[in-house]
Design goal:
InterPro entries: ArsR-like_HTH (IPR011991), HTH_MarR-typ (IPR000835), Tscrpt_reg_MarR-type_CS (IPR023187), WH-like_DNA-bd_sf (IPR036388), WH_DNA-bd_sf (IPR036390). With about 150 residues, the protein is mainly alpha-helical. The protein has seven helices and three strands. The protein has one domain: Orthogonal Bundle (Arc Repressor Mutant, subunit A). Helix 1 crosses helix 6.
Amino acid sequence: MRAIRKTDGGFLISQIKQVGSRIFEKLLADANVDAFNGAQGRILYVLWQTENIPIVELARKTGLAKTTLTSMLDRMENAGLVTRVFDKSDRRQIRITLTENARALSDEYEKVSMKMNGIYYAGFTDEEIIAFEKTLLRVLDNLNEKERTI
């Protein structure tokens, strides 16, 4: 690793997550989307893209630890948002599917997400957004690679 000055990237990302989460929760409340919280929205977002996936894959895509995800899924199942289904070809594997209720929330969530994107990227050019997200993906790749080796 090269020697560089003190950096604040991790601290800034943590602050962005905290402030962004508070704003997102407020936007959800303003839109009367109260069937789930922001953290559960991250799970739903992944399932809206790719439904009927194993818990392990859902954990990977959301970045949540499997134990954290399992307790969140318990609450979401009790709220009528998701169901657990045994995989027909491997009964040891449990897949997560959306309920009709959760599918119906997708449009409202998408509207709130678009507002949030507008807040995140206010004043950015398309090129800056692309470069920024490319850089974030590199950081995420570095972290995922390290996590696999520790």
